């Protein structure tokens, strides 16, 4: 283990101040203990990787497994998910992962994403038309409903069930204390609902991802029922919340940099570059999915014993001064080597869709409102209290 000048338990990172500004804590760790043994809030040991080169290598390292079977003890990772919802890409390693990803890629094609562009624009326009100023919470008015609509379109959720779908999703994503029972109930309802939707798509296929997944074939191979259900769930978990926060974080990046905002408005800086720099500067998926060492693994000066849990901080790697000069400066002109969508075989399947949603949302927002101003200072913004994601709870602006 590398030397630790300043001991730092991950549980302390949970404190509100550090959640609001994790970058100071990560900067210290990168300097003093880039591969740091610490403890999760529930008392489990975990190794935290914070530098860019090590993080990128770890994301693609086959010795670091996403399969829970490689955890040291059977209870080292407790899942709140029923097993039929757990058979997805982010719990698998090659060759199982390779087979599943090949089948999913047959359904989740660039063409399918491109076909969503017109719907995404129409949904954005509708949301912005109904957002009456002058005070608007852009999280509720735009950042949440747009990705929800996109996921419903993508999966082919029938119009009549979209309200229920949104209610269950909101319950699943609200991490308020005491919400565990409600969350379990919502999970059960969502599970049953997705089962019935998959059955429908099998009998009456439509033009959507779920129908395409049901039909995806590779030689004699196709997706099993648990795989289909798990993939539908993964699409929701990986695709909804992250997209919400990318939209919120991108708008915030602009509001915090008024000169840049002005340059974007006159077309001197492309919105695409602002989205890309937001992905580096404020990545929504701030911590990669936990890995388990299949064998003793040496990373930097640290020897991580077989079975250990490993966390890779995307938020920290993206601010590593060894990779990004002046990493705390928001500069849309820099090269885009960030790790916001991961790296290696698990690289995000939804990256083009996420980019399209954020670019459409921000472009349309700027067109709709010639004036946009924050109503609070940067220190007064409220973030979800977790270091696994970076997302705003609200973003109220004055518009005109
Ligand atoms: C801003 C939005 C998004 C971000 C920041 C994001 C981030 C990521 C990251 C970091 C991974 C790799 C995780 C790891 O290796 O630990 C990942 C995987 C994945 N993402 Fe995304 N994602 C976003 C949007 C989406 C969307 C919109 C979808 C689908 C609709 C999606 C579907 C997936 C899937 C299926 C995987 C698993 C790929 C595999 O294991 O082969 N993501 N995402």
List keywords for this structure.
47% helix, 400 residues, 3-stranded antiparallel β-sheet, 12 strands, Cytochrome p450, binds protoporphyrin IX containing FE, 5-stranded mixed β-sheet, alpha+beta, 18 helices
The poorly predicted ranges are 1-8, 13-17
How many domains is the backbone divided into?
A: 1
Distance from N terminus to C terminus (CA atoms, Å) equals: 55 Å
Q: Can you give the mean pLDDT?
A: 89
Q: Report the total helices.
A: 18
**Main sheet characteristics:** 5 strands, mixed
CATH homology group: Cytochrome P450
- The proportion of strand residues reads 5-15%
As a percent range, the share of helical residues equals 40-55%
Q: How many distinct beta strands?
A: 12
| Helix and strand run | HHHEEHEHHHEHHHHHEEHHHHEEEEHHEE
In the CATH scheme, what's the topology name? Cytochrome p450
Shape: globular
CATH architecture grouping: Orthogonal Bundle
Strand order of the largest sheet: 1-2-10-7-3
| Ligand kinds | protoporphyrin IX containing FE
- Per CATH, the class reads Mainly Alpha
Class based on secondary structure composition and strand pairing: alpha+beta
């Amino acid at each position: 283990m590398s030397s630790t000048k300043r001991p730092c338990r991950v549980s302390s990172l949970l404190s509100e101040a550090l959640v609001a500004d994790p970058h100071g804590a990560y900067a210290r760790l990168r300097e003093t203990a880039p591969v740091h043994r610490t403890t999760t809030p529930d008392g489990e040991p975990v190794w935290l990787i914070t530098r860019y080169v090590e993080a990128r290598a770890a994301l693609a390292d086959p010795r670091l497994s996403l399969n829970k079977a490689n955890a040291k003890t059977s209870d080292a990772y407790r899942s709140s998910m029923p097993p039929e919802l757990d058979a997805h890409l982010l719990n698998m390693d090659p060759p199982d992962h390779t087979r599943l990803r090949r089948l999913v890629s047959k359904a989740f094609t660039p063409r399918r994403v491109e076909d969503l562009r017109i719907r995404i624009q129409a949904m954005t326009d509708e949301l912005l038309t109904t957002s009456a100023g002058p005070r608007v919470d852009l999280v509720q008015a735009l950042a949440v409903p747009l990705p929800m609509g996109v996921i419903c379109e993508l999966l082919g959720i029938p119009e009549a069930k979209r309200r229920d779908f949104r209610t269950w999703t909101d319950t699943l994503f609200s991490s308020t204390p005491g919400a565990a029972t409600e969350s379990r109930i919502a999970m059960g309802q969502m599970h049953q609902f997705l089962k019935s939707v998959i059955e429908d798509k099998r009998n009456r296929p439509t033009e959507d991802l779920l129908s395409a997944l049901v039909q995806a074939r590779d030689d004699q191979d196709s997706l099993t029922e648990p795989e289909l259900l798990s993939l539908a769930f993964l699409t929701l978990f990986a695709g909804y919340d992250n997209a919400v926060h990318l939209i919120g974080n991108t708008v915030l990046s602009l509001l915090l940099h008024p000169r840049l905002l002005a340059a974007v408005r006159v077309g001197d800086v492309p919105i695409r570059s602002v989205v890309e720099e937001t992905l580096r500067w404020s990545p929504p998926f701030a911590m990669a999915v936990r890995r388990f060492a299949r064998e003793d693994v040496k990373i930097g000066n640290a020897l991580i014993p077989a079975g250990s849990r490993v966390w890779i901080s995307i938020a920290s790697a993206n601010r590593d001064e060894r990779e990004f000069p002046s990493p705390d400066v928001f500069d849309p002109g820099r090269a885009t080597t960030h790790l916001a969508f991961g790296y290696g075989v698990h690289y995000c399947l939804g990256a083009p869709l996420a980019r399209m949603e954020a670019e459409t949302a921000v472009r349309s927002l700027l067109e709709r409102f010639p004036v946009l101003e924050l109503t609070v200072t940067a220190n007064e913004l409220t973030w979800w209290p977790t270091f696994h994601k970076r997302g705003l709870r609200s973003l109220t602006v004055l518009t005109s």
